[in-house]
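Fig. S4 source data, part A: sequence.
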Amino acid sequence: MEGHVLIVSFGSQYVQLIARKVRELGVYSEIVSPDIDIEEIIAKKPCALIFSGGPYSVYEDNAPKLEKKIYELGIPILGICYGHQLIAYDFGGTVERSDKHEYGKAYLDFKPNIFFKDIPQRTVVWMSHADKVYTLPKDFESIGFSDNSENAVIKHKHLPIYGVQFHLEVYHTEYGKKMLSNFLFDIAKCQPNWNMKNFKEHKIEEIKETVGNKKVICAISGGVDSAVAAVLTHKAIGDKLTCIFVDHGLLRKNESNEVISNLTNLGLNIVALDRSNLFLEKLKNVEDPEQKRKIIGNTFIEIFEEEAKKYNAEFLLQGTLYPDLVESAGIHGSAKIKSHHNVGGLPEKMNLTLLEPLRELFKDEVRALGLELGLPKDMVYRHPFPGPGLAIRIIGDVKEEDLNILREADAIFIEELKKWDLYDKTWQAFVVLLPIKSVGVMGDNRTYEKVLALRAVDSQDGMTAEPSKLPYEFLEHVMRRIIQEVKGINRVVYDISSKPPATIEWE
């Protein structure tokens, strides 16, 4: 991955968007921690460094800093928000709390510079800051300003070091992607060599080298992540891969048979196991979502370690993605959101070595890789389904009765989305059973039954999401079908929360 971009994360909620925007421009990007060693940066041979935003003030004692030697490496640097302020601070400028905080849309004017090539003289940017650069350090100049930030864009007079006060990675900044492109290609001279064909070939060779003559078992669910990971690894090591599909009793209606059929058609060696009783017994009376995830993750590992002995396998293949790592581990200064069963839900000690060839990718990149590998489009664009399954779509204790209610309601929702030609227009859709009952009336009789929430979101990578604007007539139709056909439900609501502040799944 020589010639890629290192993004130093200072805890910004937008850091993943920076990584994605860089990749969309054809350059591989990697997010690293501020405590990264200078020698490690040199060894990685990046074409550019980007410093992210963050919730800190550079003058605070606990604010994350970098070794100042980083500025002596000759690597082009772009600072965003906190990163912009840190550059000014490190070179001797002053950063202070602003009398007027700047949040949301602002207008940027600028001086001629290659950073603004092919951008209108006055453009909209997205601000989110309380501090600002008051005094420029020696050898720096301001080349962009807003009504409240006279130093909204700064640059070193002699070195390829730039800072922007606004967030060019968000779509609200009209020409943010163009500014980033100008920095990467005209200033940093990066090469656009990141694409799925190159990634596929690189990973196949890497898997061959890692596995050697050893054997691998794959935890496969039928979702796009594990399917792509399995097909990619199968191309690398062939019959040394055995895929194990575990029915944990938390799947959707008829899902087990459909998954086994689809995976077998891909030419994979599939072993199907029914362990539903085991999982449901372990989840009995468990309400905390983190505990659910850890129980499910640990139980999966116990099963796979047992099966690995039968096949003399030393590696466990998983379809772990980059957002899974970010949300589960709270890496690179970001907060831990929730444990994904294949990351934060795993036991500390395992007898198997993890093989995770997709861990650098976002969901849309996995889909692009799936198409590159020749997977059917229906499988590639199947909505995401969490490893813990319906256990985290029942808020509270997981009971067989509630699982059956959820399966029937989910089947109706997905069926109608497809009938109304809405399934492919949403990124993910599902139903959630709430731990409350409400009063209703059916056939002149009082009812006191469960409440169901419909959830549908639009997203690119799962890191951010907006509620899908489904037609009211559609929602009303789905509501009537569910209440009429699914015993135990008398109220249906639609979740219109975005991510952030909510997550896509409820647990």
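Fig. S4 source data, part B ends here. The longest strand covers residues 94-110.
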